Amino acid sequence: MRKLPSLKALSCFEAASEYQSFTQASRSMNMTHAAIIYQIGLVEDWLGAKVFIRSNSGIQLTANGKRLKEACSYSFQVLEEACAGIRDAQGKKVIHLGCASSFLIYWVIPLLSEFNRGSEKIDVVVSAENDIYSLFKGRFDLMIADEGINNLSSITSRHLIDNYIGPVCAPQYYNKEGSLKGQYLLHASSHGKAWQEWAGISGVSLDGSVGMTLESLTLCIESAKAKLGLAITPRFLVDRAINEGKLIAPFGFVDSGRATSFYYRSDAEKISEIAAFCQWLSMKISG
User: Fold this and answer.
1) Closest CA relative to residue 186, chosen from 218, 164, 145, 208
2) Which of 79, 129, 140, 207 has most Cβ atoms within 10 angstroms of its Cβ?
3) Domain end point (choices 68, 83, 98)
4) Angstrom distance (rounded) from CA 102 to CA 189
5) How far apart are the first and last CA of the chain?
6) Does residue 225 fall inside a structural domain?
7) Residue 178 gets which letter from DSSP?
8) Helices in 20-155 by DSSP H: which ranges?
């Protein structure tokens, strides 16, 4: 048996070493901040040495941390290539897709089995990560994100859907026409300025509202369904819930001026397979 820390702990360390931030690492790994710190603590306990210097200004790798980062990056790349090669050899190309957990839960996962069953040549494997940097590292073949990636000749973008945003809540929750005074607003830590952005576009005042911050947009949407308050969200994430009567949009939706797009490397080996999946998902989302 190999004498190593767990792969999970090493993956958390690698993410933190790439971002130089426990917070960013927790988002990329779809884990809590505390869980990332715990896993890195396991690595340090196993090594008997610190891998990060912690300070009020952030974290920095120690000399041992830099050595471990180099080893992890190389080893994980070898593992990824070997695993992908084995799966590809079974007759199907595997597309590794990264996107936000909310997009995965409300769109990709409900549709993924349909695509994988219907495609004889392509399998799609998903992860809850939408940091565009992961494309450069080869961790993903395809990414869905609402970030604008401009002037990068190595990255190809393909428009998926415009982002119309607005507040949603359970039908039984909201009964105060045209005002948010006294209403409970649910804020996602990953979209910290979303309410202010919507208010600025719509002209609706946030004065007199109260609220709380949750870790993710998914938690905000599910809390809104549970009658805990109003969540601000892109329309395409909640269209299905609105049609099913689980949510309402009392203020409608406004154009944020942003869009969600596909991103992939311009020199990707699986370019035809990526294009086929992008076209299929675009058709599903557009209706």
Assistant:
1) 218
2) 140
3) 83
4) 13
5) 51
6) yes
7) T
8) 22-29, 33-47, 63-89, 101-103, 109-118, 133-137
Rounded CA separation 269/271 (Å): 6
β-sheet bridge partners, residue 93: 122
DSSP state for residue 56 in the 8-state scheme = T
Query: What is the Cα–Cα distance from 126 to 30, expressed in whole angstroms?
Result: 12
Instruction: Give dist(CA 97, CA 101) in Å, integer.
Output: 12
- Segment 170-183 shows an average pLDDT of 80
User: By residue range, what is the domain housing residue 50?
Assistant: 7-83
> Measuring CA to CA, how many Å separate 67 from each of 12, 49, 121, 139?
16, 12, 40, 21
What does the pLDDT look like over 88-126, one tens digit per residue? 666 667 888 988 889 889 888 888 878 877 776 788 888
Residue with tokens 């917070």: 23
Flag the least confident range among 11-20, 66-75, 88-97, 146-155.
146-155
Q: What is the CA radius of gyration of the chain?
A: 21
Cβ neighbours of residue 7 under 8 Å, at least 6 residues apart?
Answer: none
User: Which CATH number belongs to the domain containing residue 94 in this structure?
Assistant: 3.40.190.10
- Token pair in block for residue 168: 């949603």
Which is nearest to 272 in space by CA: 93, 81, 137, 86? 93
